[in-house]
């Protein structure tokens, strides 16, 4: 809600206060930051989600990251994320489909 009201600082404060964050929360905050031109923050959140909270992106998160990269013409970075997803899909084909995370 804070992001819809153009208050990304407040949104980030509330997000940081939540102990158990799920993929929907991460994606929502990333999308909001990106929509307000704060793409660096959105991509930093994505990195934190993957490395610190060890969550795997879902399809919506993937599109959010690609959209953020496209928003500021980060073609190379968007291509890296795309290549990573293709590798994940290929490895999942061998192991079976990913289980959705909550």
UniProtKB/TrEMBL annotation:
GO terms for biological process: RNA modification. Gene3D superfamilies: Tetratricopeptide repeat domain (1.25.40.10). Keywords: Repeat, Transit peptide. GO terms for molecular function: RNA binding. The keyword Cytoplasm does not apply. It holds the Pfam family PPR_2. PROSITE patterns: PPR. InterPro entries: PPR_At4g14850-like_plant, PPR_rpt, TPR-like_helical_dom_sf. The keyword Repeat applies. PPR repeats lie at residues 22-52. PANTHER family: PENTATRICOPEPTIDE REPEAT-CONTAINING PROTEIN. This is Pentatricopeptide repeat-containing protein.
